[in-house]
Structures are given as C-alpha cells and as structure tokens.
Amino acid sequence: MAKKKTSIKDIAEALGISITTVSFILNGKGREKRISDEMTKKVQDYIKKIGYKPSHIAQSLRLGKSKVIVLMVEDISNQFFASIARLIEEKSYKNGYKIIYCSTDNDTDKAKELIGTFKVRNVDGFIITPTPGLENVVKELLEEGVAVVLFDRWMPEVDCSYVIVENKTSAEEATRHLMDQGCRNLGFVTVDSNQTQMMDRLAGFQEALKGSKVHSSILKVKFHTIAEQYASQRILEFLTSHPELDGVFFSTNYLAFEGLQALIKLGKKIPQQIKVVSFDDHYFFNLFQPPISAIEQPIEEIAESLMESMLKQLEGTGQNENQKIVLSNKLNVRESSVLH
Q1: Residue 255 buriedness (CB in 10 A; 0-12 / 13-18 / 19+)
Q2: Which residues are in coiled coils (predicted)?
Q3: pLDDT tens-digit readout, 212-238
Q4: Second label for 161, Cα 20 to 30 Å away, from 59, 73, 153, 325?
C-alpha cells in the first residue's frame, strides 16, 4: 500500500498549531503575519526533518502565482529562437521562475489554443512572437492582468511591452552594402507576411533603392515548415527567371539556406556572379564557402531585455508603463558579398 503523502494539516496536528500558521510560514509570510521567528524555525525544522515538499499546484492556487513563464515562439528548432530560449531559461531560473517552451508554426489557431491551455494552468506570464490575427487574444491577456511581452515583432493595434530589433535600418544598410559592391540588379527574397518585422525588412530594402538606378525584383514566399520543399522550388524558379541578378538579399536565414541550395544547382559562383547577404546570422554561414555576409541580431541583449521587462511586470516595479525596446543589429561582412 502506498504511503500517504504528508499534508499541511498533518504538520499542523503534529506541531499543535493551526493550519493557517503552517500555510503562512510555508509561503514566506510568517514575518508579515507576525509569526515569531521561533515558531517559523520550528515549522521549517520539522518539514526539513520529514522531507515535506509542498504541492506546486496547490501552492500556485494559494498564492495566485505559478512561478512559470510561457515562451511561445514561431519555431523553437530555429537557431535564433532556440538561442533566445536558452538564455531566457537561464535568467528565469536565477529569478525563481521556470520556462515552458512551445512553437506556434505561425499558426493563429494553434497559438490561441496554446494560450488558452496555459491560462487555465495559472501561468504568470507570456513571452510571445505573435502570429497574424492574435491581437484580441493578447488584449484579453492584458485586460486580465497577465504579464505579456512580445518579441521579434509587435502589433500596432495593441499597447503592449515588446522587444524588437532595427529591422528596417539593418535591411537598408545591407542593401546599400550590396549596391556599394557594384550590384545593379538586386533580388529580395522574403516571407509573404504583413507582420511588422517582415514589412520593415522589405521597407528597408526599398528605401535603399530610392533615387538609385538599381533594378530590383522581389519574391514573397508563404510561411512554411522546414520539411516542406515549397520555398526551395519557388526560389529556384525566381533565380532562373531573373538571370540578370547580381545580388540577392534573403530576409531570413532559413530562406537563405534554400536560396544557397538553389544557387548551387544553377552553378552560380558567389560572389563573382552573384553576391549574397542574409538577415539573421547563423553559425552555418561561417562554414559555407564562401562565408555568407549576414545581419547579426543581439541575442544576449534581446533575452536580457525580455526578462527585465517580464520581471518588472511580475514584480510590480514597472509602474504600469509598457516597455518598448528597439535594439541595434550588426552587419557581418564576409566573402559572399565582397570581391577581392
């Protein structure tokens, strides 16, 4: 027969005190409730002696806090999101919180379902890379007093804390770099999306071309999973139908991976025949021959800013002010975009 788990009531009876007194001490409210240090030590020594561990669920119901934060990203297997997740996990743990990760696959219905699932589990906060059409759900979370921080993208219709990077400025810088290297027929390959980060990267590309004599061609591909071959085929068709391109800028690293595969199939020499730059640096870009020029996002700063903003909300030190943080990127110029 299984041994019965010790309850707060059992502890109270063993020590001859009230259940309420034990509860206050277990929840760190002994001093606040004017319980003597002697009594507090008596309870703590006893629970240590018997090896008592409070129920996490019951404790979260009593305190109204679960000490759990949900990190909801587009794709946790993507290096950018995985790197952010690892740093956030480390920073959360140091502050007494645990992290739950999940991927939305940029699917709004899936995102809504996940948020609903975690809400009933009384999680303390959400760090979200929002999917299209998630505005009302996020507004509801905020109205219910749930801590929310958006990252990688934001929603103009929602007044909410967010941490993003200078997408437009960096895309403009990368495009000007290609132009400075002599490119006069530029291609831009991006995701077909009206989300802020993708719109800003496209806007940066177009801004750099204003007033120049550089010709441009733009390919927008629908969001897809890694297993799908859709983008690879579309990029191959795009490059085949635009043989005049002497430079191409990929708005994400996963599009760049498939673009490089297409360029190899076409026998294009980089950078002699076509120069390449990608948004969102990746360790693979240093291994590729030639190494690929790319915009590096400040992963450590992003994670730090996300946790700082989240903790201010959770600990009530933010004075109800939303933090809207925009961080700078770095263009790492490598051999793929420079002729020596």
Answers
A1: buried
A2: none
A3: 999 999 999 987 655 456 788 899 999
A4: 59
